[in-house]
Specification:
Elements lengths: L2 H23 L5 H26 L4 H15 L2 H34 L7 H28 L1
Helix pairs in contact: 1-2, 4-5
Length: 147
Amino acid sequence: MKKSNLYIGLVYLFIGIVCLVIALNFESRLESLLFGFTGAGICGGAVIIWKYYYWTRPENKDKYQEKIENEDIELHDERKTILRDKSGRYAYIIGLIVISVSIVIFSIISSLNIIENSKLIITYLAGFLVFQYIIGILIFNHLNKKY
């Protein structure tokens, strides 16, 4: 495993700790966001560092080489590359349709003064992000079975 993975894990961990120190020492409206960054940085960094140490142990080197070879084969498989591109295109088109409909709905809601808080929009955008990811995977799996 590359040394750069260890450095990336350490940077994530450092950013998480910095966000934790800032969130604990300063009262701010961004406190909840900083705690979120803390969890993401510390947990993500710890997982990356753990993976680095796990795969660099001498008893795991053969398994790691086999894993890397399989990943390389999967990434450069022409059929799967075409299917990934197609599923990305379809997910993009579906996303454009959903965003277009959402603009109209949010314009109507805004005109009727129903939205007073931006939390609804933030929650919607977070859900849309998850939707885009899941729809891409579902389309890829469908195309993979079809072809």
